[in-house]
User: Which sequence fits this backbone?
């Protein structure tokens, strides 16, 4: 029994250590993200409390850390700014709870409708551009606090100009506090990766503020934070219609970030991430968190990376982190009121700037320039049009990318590797690949449907005109699905090929495509002698019928009877 107890303790110990250490990193950031959203910093603690507990009980990821994130904070800030333009604290808290409840409700609805696949609708390059835009927006949003100045917010570029104009009004003492915080954060991260640098920065900021009386010297501080367990906050039903569109976008981004972080840091030995269960878990986390006045929550990449590096094995560490958040609310809240805004802004900037990944842009550009352009479009979409409009634009750009890729599928001319039974597309890299006199083998790749049918037909026509074959074989082995319009394209292709004096064959149809070809009457029209189980069978039939055959006066092979 004692050995079993020791084994359980040794297994639980890494999670306890990870939970306490993660709290030192996550909780200061959560308070900072609450400030980004224009909410009291205590809301960050509430968001790192109940949502984290609920997810740990329902989620499928063993490592995902669920609380506030930089992306969700700036999205919430935009929506709350539209809903409560006068920034009344009481109204903001109620509006935030309503927004969080709606976010949770939409996530749960997605789970009921089994919409887990929606996370795949935003492509990685477009998400890279969107997050980089969010990173710049957050840095500019927090920059005035580093200087102790205030600017009116009108848009990214006008705010940037306004910041430059007001820079001479900066408080030197505030700038010194911000600079010291940045040095601590950056220095500790360089010398001691994944260290509790935010805790040191926040603790140091509070100590300096108390010792030197920074609040009385003109340095802005957080101010009074209520001590004790958060009061129940009920959503305002009158705000539902106004907040619902923003909540949909926030729910989508919460789910997308959570899935991406959960999959990125999952160990191969751990159970797979289940998207629909994740919808339910994050939805319940937001819905329950709203009752305590939490802001929208999701799984963040940076905070998940921290807890994974600290040895987190199960969601028990999340319960430890939530316990630390509760202890701070009950016992240490008054001390947080001494925290300088400049310190909190520095924490937010250092950890939000990681959203900007130039290396990812370069990697995308090296692989595909078109997707690099989409990433740039998403990036500037956030800066020019705003965050909520940017997320809608991100989805639209992702769908355009998807449609563009599926429409412009290529039809390859297929040859055989010299001396081997390997069929592959003809390319300059393989000049010795052999083709077959009078036979043109073409291979489209992808799903054929109404949007790309004409594009495929145009390529087939151009290749037939170029090569002037006697037999055209369409290798369908890489076509996974075919729609009615594409079937009509095949029928048209067969007719046009015949009018040009060539014979049209089909090879390698999978069962679903073959069923469609039969239903459209094309199989009956072509007959069994022009349809083959694979391309090798078609080539063998062609060689047996046309090889070593005499030619007509026009130079065309005369097939054997």
Assistant:
């Amino acid at each position: 029994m004692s050995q079993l107890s020791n084994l359980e303790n040794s297994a639980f110990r890494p999670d306890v250590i990870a939970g306490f250490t993660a709290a030192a990193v996550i909780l200061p950031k959560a308070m900072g993200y609450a400030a980004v959203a224009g909410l009291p910093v205590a809301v960050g603690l509430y968001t790192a409390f109940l949502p984290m507990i609920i997810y740990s009980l329902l989620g499928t990821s063993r490592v995902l850390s669920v609380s506030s994130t930089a992306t969700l904070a700036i999205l919430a800030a935009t929506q709350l700014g539209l809903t409560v333009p006068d920034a009344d604290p009481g109204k903001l808290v109620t509006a935030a709870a309503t927004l969080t409840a709606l976010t949770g409700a939409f996530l749960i609805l997605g789970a009921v409708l089994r919409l887990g696949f929606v996370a795949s609708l935003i492509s990685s390059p477009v998400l890279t551009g969107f997050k980089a835009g969010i990173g710049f927006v957050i840095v500019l949003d927090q920059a005035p606090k580093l200087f102790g100045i205030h600017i009116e917010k009108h848009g990214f570029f006008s705010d940037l100009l306004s910041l430059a104009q007001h820079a001479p009004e900066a408080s030197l003492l505030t700038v010194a506090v911000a600079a010291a915080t940045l040095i601590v954060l950056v220095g500790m991260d360089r010398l001691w990766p994944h260290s509790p640098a935010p805790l040191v920065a926040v603790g140091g900021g509070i100590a300096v503020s108390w010792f030197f009386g920074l609040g009385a010297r003109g340095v802005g501080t957080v101010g009074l934070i209520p001590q004790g367990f958060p009061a129940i906050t009920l959503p305002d039903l009158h705000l539902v219609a106004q907040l619902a569109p923003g909540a949909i976008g926030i729910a989508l981004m919460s789910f997308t970030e959570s899935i991406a972080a959960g999959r990125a840091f999952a160990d191969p030995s751990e159970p797979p991430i289940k998207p629909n269960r994740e919808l339910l878990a994050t939805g319940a986390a937001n819905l329950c968190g709203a009752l305590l006045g939490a802001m929208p929550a999701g799984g963040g990449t940076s905070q998940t990376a921290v807890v994974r590096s600290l040895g987190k094995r199960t969601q028990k560490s999340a319960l430890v982190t939530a316990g630390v958040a509760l202890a701070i609310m009950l016992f240490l809240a008054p001390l947080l009121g001494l925290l300088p805004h400049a310190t909190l802004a520095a924490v937010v900037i250092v950890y939000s700037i990681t959203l900007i990944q130039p290396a990812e842009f370069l990697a995308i550009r090296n692989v595909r320039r078109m997707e690099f352009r989409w990433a740039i479009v998403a990036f500037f979409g956030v800066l020019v049009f705003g965050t909520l409009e940017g997320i809608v634009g991100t989805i639209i750009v992702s769908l355009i990318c998807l449609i563009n890729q599926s429409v412009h599928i290529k039809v390859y001319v297929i040859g055989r590797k010299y001396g081997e039974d390997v069929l592959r597309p003809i390319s300059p890299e393989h000049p010795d690949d052999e083709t077959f006199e009078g036979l043109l083998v073409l291979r489209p790749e992808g799903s054929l449907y109404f949007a790309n049918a004409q594009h495929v037909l145009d390529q087939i026509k151009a290749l037939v005109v170029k090569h002037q074959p006697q037999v055209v074989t369409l290798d369908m082995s890489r076509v996974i699905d075919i729609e009615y319009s594409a079937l009509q394209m095949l029928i048209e292709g067969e007719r046009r090929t015949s009018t040009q004096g060539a014979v049209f064959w089909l090879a390698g149809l999978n069962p679903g495509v073959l069923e469609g070809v039969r239903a459209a009457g094309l199989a009956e029209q072509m007959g069994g002698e022009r349809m083959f189980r694979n391309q090798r069978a078609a080539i063998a039939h062609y060689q047996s019928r046309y090889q070593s055959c005499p030619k007509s006066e026009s130079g065309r092979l005369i097939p054997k009877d």
